[in-house]
Fold each of these.
Amino acid sequence: MTLKICVAQLNYCVGDMPGNAQKIIEAARAAYAEGVRLLLTPEMAICGYAAEDLFLRRSFIQACDDAVNLVARELAGLKGLTVVVGTPTHGDSGKGRRTKSVEVQQRHNAARVLREGLIVDTYAKRELPNYQVFDERRYFTPGQGVCVFEAGEGAGAVKIGLLICEDAWFEEPARLAKEAGAELLAVINASPFHVGKGGERELMMHERVLATGLPLIYAHLVGGQDEIVFEGHSFALQADGALAGRAESFKENMFVAQVERAPAAIKLVADCAPERSPEADLWDALVLGVRDYLGKNGFPGAILGLSGGIDSALVLAIAVDALGADKVRTVMMPSPYTADISWIDAREMAARMKVRYDEISIIPEFEAFKASLAGEFKGLAEDTTEENIQARIRGVFLMALSNKFGSIVLTTGNKSEMATGYCTLYGDMAGGFAVIKDLLKTTVFRLVEWRNRNDPYGTGSNPIPERIITRPPSAELRADQTDQDSLPPYEVLDAILQRYMENDESMENIIAAGFDPAVVERVTRLIKINEYKRRQAPVGIRVTHRSFGKDWRYPITNKFQ
């Protein structure tokens, strides 16, 4: 006999404990019918990840307990099936203590091991991450124990050492599991995506396998949750570190690995999805992030301002791939400074993507604003004030359409703009979801070119007109304006941003790498003085290891340079 293990790589929703429990129940029944006798769900599968301050509510933890008990009851009749369910639990000392000033947590990030209607074991995560988007020490206390349980029957039974996510990035938890008799490591995870993260995980688990000499199954979830995305990419490694199998990324998947006892060791047999390019991962992450943000929050569709520029073109292509053309609406809002080629290109792209396209001129409103302010501005030259008025008129129009028809406004600003403040509060920053806020401008160009060569969702090949890609970027808020009037060349700007903002390099090191000291000082100053804008920006999808979101927590009032 051999043991078949299945990873329920599914899209769980934060706070929907009944719905998540039902997903697990249905997955377990289907897997059991195919001979599976161990089902692994990801970290916090019962409540979704990350539930943030919901973890502080006792009623939330109780609802999680109720959902786990429901899963146990519903699967009680499946003889020989073991199910591992990720869930928060109360700690050994009870409910903990909370006042208006103090919170002493007695909760664990845990997993329940269920078999034939009973909770037969519980494991509490030992290593609690508190960096990047993680705040686990705010909510949980570390576990102290080891969990090794047996799955399968007769000669096919295998002793499984259970770990939760961060545990597997350290040596001790896996070593203790092996010392307790584990023959195979099962690691359940909720590890947010960023470009390259899948390879990092496989490399780290490869180290863990070589250190212990045990094969390993890595169980992960898929789906979008606010600013973070989980890509799946569950996998299995042999005891010698070789890849045994890999699930498809960005898709729900019942990833099955069969355990076979070879003379010298346990061998895993599974299907293996192919390697993917960074651009393919990035595209799917953005599409999934949009689809789940709108779908899980109940928005009927999306609306965006289509300018004829590359950023809004990219957002439109992502939105159509995520939602379908019938749920996306575009509005072109020309001003006195809008070039003819802008509306021509905007019309052409809308036609290629088969979305609704409307034109609403902002010229009458712009002239009315200037007339109303003429007395206040008498004797003063036009400057960014008038530029921002145009952006804010557009924001008002888009938000009015959103209010009237219910569709959410997708903003189109990129990371380079958010970093330097090259964006207008209550103007182009007005909206509900910032799709590309974690993409540097150079990445925007690279991804647009990739999408024109690929049609991953069958919504149309080559959707973005070539002139949108090749013309110099411009906000078109004054005559003959280009982005480089106000910013360094994007190749230089983005390189500095990557070093300073994403990798925490010092100004001195960046200058020593050959960058102009004046440009480095200017860019870092812009980052600092525009923190107040970013605090008021809509949430957007995190696709790098450091985004302007939970990863970035700098004070607004700040004299340090």
Amino acid sequence: MTGGYTSQADDPDFFLSPAGKHSPKDELDATLRAIQADGEGDSHARCQFPARAAWLQQQFQLELPPMACPAFDQWTATLNAEHVTLVFAASYLNSPSSMFGHTFLRLDPPQDDASTNLLLANTISYAADAAAHDNELLFAYKGIFGGYPGVTSVEPYYEKIRLYSDIEHRDLWEYRLNLRPAEVARLLAHTWEIRNRNFDYYFFDENCAYRLLALIDAARPGTDLIGEVSTHAIPSDTVRWVVAKDLVAEVHYRPSAATSVSYALGQLPVAQQRLAVALARGALSVNAPDVAALEPADKARLFDATYDYVRYQSAAKKWPREHAAPVSHDLLVARSQISATTATSEPTVPAVRDDQGHNTFRASVAAGRRADRNFTQLTLRPAYHDLLDPPAGYRHGAELEFLRVDARYYTDNQSLELEQLTGVAIRSLSTRNAFFQPLSWQVGFGGRRTDTGSKRVLAPYLEGGVGGSWALGSNTQAFALATVDAEIDDDLNKGYDLGPGADLGLVFQHHTVSALAGVKRKAWLVDNLQRQDQLYVHTNWHLSRAVSAFAAFTREHHFDRYHTLWHVGLHVYF
């Protein structure tokens, strides 16, 4: 606001001038002097900042003698990168640090033949250097407000797969970039410059995805991927920008271990699925009559799928080794006695990638009526996705919104009111079955209009819930959540209120229409001692990837009165 410059680098060692963080001119002068100074070896500026030195040499047409940089040369030789692949790990709502997904770069070695194992390739990633003892809530708070330094690290790809795919149930999308050899070399040189430098980490903007955009910009000047970032850099959005800039040569899908296991089990007939559950839990022997009666090929598929399921549960540390080891051994021994082979069946590649889903910024306009008052409503939501948005490219049953603002203009008294300010709203409706029993849960906080009996006031709230969700078909699921709400406001008689309750509903998610219907009940225990019952039906019609029409209806009983709320409008995704 006052002019001047501030570098995003927060490490003094990144600058050659004491004033470099705030003066690009001083840093330029100091760098030109340093790279032309006498000397050689790893401590020289040309070895510490090889990308910076090469770029300045080109811009100023400097004649610099060759210089050996043993540490940098050995580092690049070890990485042995010929190509660069941008990897996107899908969102994982059970961790605040992974709610939007994650991106990192894979450094692919020369592929002389099909036997080249990319699992051994190295990766470049940027993440918050969080203290090991920080819990998820503290991580979210400090991550939002820059409480952690960001660290650029180089790790083997198989370590990333173990974390994201094998443990956290996250599918991976691999986008091979069309960078030329000189651009790959420049990207590595700039990575060397920042690899041990501190850049403060911010969850919404200067995050993992933002730093990778900067690396790609350095590799291919003029792409200006950083220029696409405004208030936030969501990983799936940044992948869209990379694709839109024509930087991607090919895309490969790598399903997570959970996706592969679920697919294999789903290919079994229902009767064999019951056998798989019993075998995995040790309730049935591999020599049981029901198993022995199967044809050899069916028996082989059953043993293969069950073994993979047991191995997954063991790797995810959900089952103790004392149980998993003997069950796995029995399955392998039984399988080895069957000569029948089974064709490897891989999960189907999703028709829509994560980067091909709707854009995350949404603006909405609506007209409606609450009781006897007509209103128009404007809603702005910076990110990310709710249950009724177009589901393609997003996790079914998952919802994540932050900083959503709902404002209403009531026509009867020409008043503009803030209806709700959503700080964060998360809902994870993961379906349960015989093999997987995840909890469904929700949490949210912000400010909303609440009825005190005599007026509606804007009160801070905190809400949460936990329960289960069950699939009723490929697009439909039912859920039941035990909930609790807390509200705090001076207009409440006692200053606060607490309301345990329940939320029972159905969700239908399809590429043409999505719907949410259910009933809620709360029993306010502290302030007004009133029961609040609600019947709700919400529907979105997806006209295109960028536009949806919506309608919402709510019938509520509170303070011995009935209120009806309805509104219709349009969502536009940017």
Amino acid sequence: MSDNAALTNAPELTVSELSGALKRAIEDQFGHVRLRGEISNYRGPHSSGHCYFSLKDAAARIDAVIWKGTFSRLRAKPQEGLEVIATGRITTFPGKSSYQIVIEQLEPAGLGALMALLEERRKKLAAEGLFDETRKKKLPFLPGVIGIVTSPTGAVIRDILHRLSDRFPRRILVWPVRVQGETSAGEVAAAIRGFNALAAGGAIPRPDLLIVARGGGSLEDLWSFNEEEVLRAAAASDIPLISAIGHETDWTLLDLVADLRAPTPTGAAEKAVPVRAELLGDLADRARRLDAAALRLLDRRRADLRALARALPGPESLLATPRQRLDRAGDRLRASLAAALSRRQLALANASRLLARHAPHAEVQRAAGQLNNLAYRLGAARGALIEKTGERLKTLAARFGAARFASQALLRNDLRAREEKRRALAARLDAAARVFLARRREALGHVEKMLAAVGYEGVLRRGFALVRDAAGAPIRSVAQAPDGALLTLQFADGRIAATAGPPLDRAPAKKRAAKPPKAKAADQGSFF
């Protein structure tokens, strides 16, 4: 009885209360831990953006979760089978009665893990062709603007600027970034994309060459330049890019993607521009060689010209014959000019005499006199013509009145004669028409009687029918009506449609004896 009473006095807890108490106890005891283990059952981020997987070692396993916001900030992303050191807090998940670690920071466990991850990433990008030599761009011989992606406070930028100023001063654009840390990869990738996004001819000049530089360090320090984000931004760059990461023995995946790898940042400056003094010396040497070559060519041309001149005839002998032809042509030209001038003077004198006889003012006066005479004669002729025309019109009017009266009398007499003749002809035509119509009616009656006697309508009235096919043609035998043919049967009082069936009986065709040809009947003429 006492044991049962002790049990009944224990406080009752709900499942949620117990889960909450366990959660608080575990979080108080293990608020912040660092776990070393191998990632297992990793399938990438969930559709919500969170990551769920397990950390295990040889004897145990623990569930792990990385929230979406933390995952985007991680420098090292989780991968299946990778040994890592996870930093976070231990908590429980009441829905499954299990405990888990919420990871806040993740890093590979040791140099071996980083090298394995680096090798795996190298193989992946090599398979995609990011390291192919065919896609690498040629560096400009003398870039006008050089863009540098590096830390603005380190010794790297000073070394690059100093070496550029010594070799060949160029315009420099520096894009300040962090070269180490969690945000380093994103800043470097953004700088490469930003330089490529500059428009040519804009307020900020677009670089002709990019240099991504950093000083030496360990593999962990240089890890930002092994991130896929940086490598893909460098591969997509339209501007040629030089990788100058670390010292000569340091190596990153960016060296394989870049168009050229420099062993040091100072070496990148040396590969970016030539030595100005060497160029000037080479240019002066080439100028001297060009001048010497020009002098030698000029001497050779002079010698050739002298040799050719000796083979040519002298100017006097060349010009002697043309001079004689010119003199003779000059003499002929003077004579021709004198003769032409005489002819022109004679023609001018003749034209002057002709023009004197036909001076414009004399011609105008003569034409004015003729015009006045014609105007006077025209006025007199017009008056006489009007008077003569009036008298003629009076005579014609009198003659026209008499003729019209006589013509009207003749027309009236002719009209009376024609009317009497028309009446006689109309009477005769009426009589002839009545006789003609009577004869035609009589002939038509005979034809109607004959048509009624020989037409098929009379036969139809006696109980027969006329069979036609679908086209309306008469059918005279069973062979013309195959089985299923559409027929039209015409009776005396109308037509009906029918369909031909199989023949009920078919009489054998009888050979008819040849009849002697009938004598051709005499032509009886037409009823009409």
